[in-house]
Amino acid sequence: MTKPTILVVDDEPEAVELVEFNLKQAGFDVITAADGEVALKKAKTTLPALIVLDLMLPAIDGLEVCKLLRRDPATAG
Asked: Does residue 1 surpass a pLDDT of 80?
């Protein structure tokens, strides 16, 4: 059985590292992104079970990322 994948999105490397470490310790596969554009690409290609998303991101903010993912049938669920 495969482990659920979680996408962690934050532009602060220390925050990403802390969350990533704890999620891996809990048995999850973790992928990361530092901005909204990369987060959208990774979400569409990996279809994570959960996205931990910072609201204040460079380029595309977290709320817009969420809206775009919900509009796309591939990532809406």
From this structure: no
CA atoms within 13 A on the CB side of 74: 9
Q: HSE on the CB side for 36, CA within 13 Å?
A: 16
Cβ(59)–Cβ(35) below 8 Å: yes
Please give the structure tokens belonging to residue 21.
């470490």
Q: What is the pLDDT of residues 15-61, one digit of tens each?
A: 999 999 999 999 999 999 999 999 999 999 999 999 999 999 988 99
Q: Six-digit token pair at 31?
A: 């992928």
8 A C-beta contact, residue 9 and residue 51: yes
